[in-house]
Write a structure and sequence with these properties.
Blueprint (H helix, E strand, L loop, with lengths): L2 H28 L1 H5 L11 H29 L5 H23 L3 H22 L2
């Protein structure tokens, strides 16, 4: 199996971690009745930790489609290489580090880690479009 597909498989685990971490803190704040209900009612703003995890999840979802398209694209196009593997692992590793940094409210370093993840995607994208 291509390394890039392995990276995508692990990224699914990371997505689930994002979903469950945010849901856990939201349920802790709003209660299980809210979690199991239709969620139609007006709610107070999220507490700091829950809000951070929800925003981290949204941030992950903003670039996740790009990762899926580029990583699948290089496999389908037969353009995988050491560089696409490095780029994919760089993206995934940075996204793993990003989540706890965001949860803890670490500013500048979090942004640098985000930019590193984009560099990883850029390496994969470059291989996909170069011809």
């Amino acid at each position: 199996m291509a390394v890039e597909l392995n990276i995508l498989a692990w990224s699914c685990v990371l997505l689930l971690i994002h979903i469950f971490a945010a849901a856990h803190l939201k349920t802790k704040q709003y209660g299980t009745k809210w979690n199991m209900g239709a969620r139609d009612e007006e709610l107070p703003p999220l507490e700091r930790g829950a809000g951070r995890l929800v925003r981290a999840q949204a941030n992950f979802l903003e670039t996740y489609p790009i990762a899926i398209i580029t990583l699948l694209g290089v496999v389908i196009a037969g353009r995988t290489s050491e560089w696409t593997a490095v780029g994919g692992w760089l993206w995934l590793g940075a996204r793993i580090v990003y989540l706890p940094l965001y949860a803890m409210g670490v500013p500048v370093v979090r942004t640098i880690i985000y930019l590193i993840s984009l560099v990883g995607l850029g390496l994969v994208f470059q291989a996909l479009v170069s011809g």
